[in-house]
Amino acid sequence: MLDLWQTLSSVGSGAAVGFVLGLIGGGGSILATPLLLYVVGIAQPHVAIGTSALAVSANAYLNFASHARRRNVCWACAIVFALVGTVGALLGSTLGKAIDGQALLFLFGLIMVAVGIAMLRPRRERGAAHQITTLRNCLRTGVAALLAGGASGFFGIGGGFLIVPALILATGMSMANAVGSSLLAVGTFGLATALNYAVSGMVNWPVAGLFIAGGLLGGLVGTRLSLRLAGQRNTLARIFAGIVFAVAAYILYRSGSALLRAP
């Protein structure tokens, strides 16, 4: 049974992640695990990662449905990437469960630094016009899908910051199509990771439900605000990168200290 603080903080943390995702279109899910650990109060790193993977999956599928309605999805590439990458997600999450929780958090802090650096790169918005992509082009991304899925499963993150550039480089599709297509993979990777952790009892289902509900509300607000601040997304992304760096430093300090104290 959750106490009042855990209930409110789960909804609030989910809303914060959803707000960031809606506002700048990515990166917010990297904060899910730190929020579950240090705000909601989940004590076990593996449970926080498994729970965040489920929340990331739900939010990704909801956003994917929105992009699909707008025809921003290249279905052949999206399906191939999701199927191949799911194998990587299962392998990565199985490996992640076997690693010491504090060591996993330390590696998670390092991946947060990489995400922050990626967020600093200015985005060049392209038109949403559809470019013809073939199954052959999608198959060329197979290796990238396996690696991205492995990273997603290992750290319990969405991995969109890896998937989007992989799709663009391999197929030449537009940014809009890459973002829309990547969400199917993000959702599927997260679901595979969450189910793998759930088998081992490493998902807090009540917290996940509240986190997802908060994410829906935050996403609506963030999306509406993004329409008003469309010309300032690069600035917002840089501010968010600064937050990611700060959280990463905290995680590296906490997990690094715990590793040094370990016998």
Description of the structure:
There is one protein chain. Mean pLDDT is 84; it is low at 125-132. The chain has helices at 4-24, 32-40, 45-69, 75-98, 101-120, 135-139, 142-155, 160-171, 175-199, 205-228, 233-261. With 263 residues, the protein is an all-alpha fold. The chain has one domain. Pfam families: TauE. InterPro entries: TM_pro_TauE-like (IPR002781), TSUP/Inactive_protease-like (IPR051598). It comes from Thermomonas haemolytica. This is Probable membrane transporter protein. It is found in: Cell membrane; Membrane.
DSSP helical segment count: 11
Radius of gyration: 17 Å
Characterize the largest beta sheet: strand count, sense, and whether it forms a barrel.
none
Q: How much of the sequence is in beta strands? A: under 5%
Ranges where pLDDT stays below 50 over 5 or more residues in a row are 125-132
Helix content: over 70%
Keywords: Cell membrane, Membrane, Transmembrane, Transmembrane helix
Membrane topology: Multi-pass membrane protein
InterPro entries: TM_pro_TauE-like (IPR002781), TSUP/Inactive_protease-like (IPR051598)
Subcellular location: Cell membrane; Membrane
Overview in brief:
The chain has helices at residues 4-24, 32-40, 45-69, 75-98, 101-120, 135-139, 142-155, 160-171, 175-199, 205-228, 233-261.
Furnish the topology, listing elements before pairings.
Elements lengths: L3 H21 L7 H9 L4 H25 L5 H24 L2 H20 L14 H5 L2 H14 L4 H12 L3 H25 L5 H24 L4 H29 L2
Helix pairs in contact: 1-2, 1-10, 2-3, 3-9, 3-10, 4-7, 4-9, 5-11, 7-9, 8-9
Q: Main traits of this protein?
A:
263 residues; mainly alpha; 79% helix
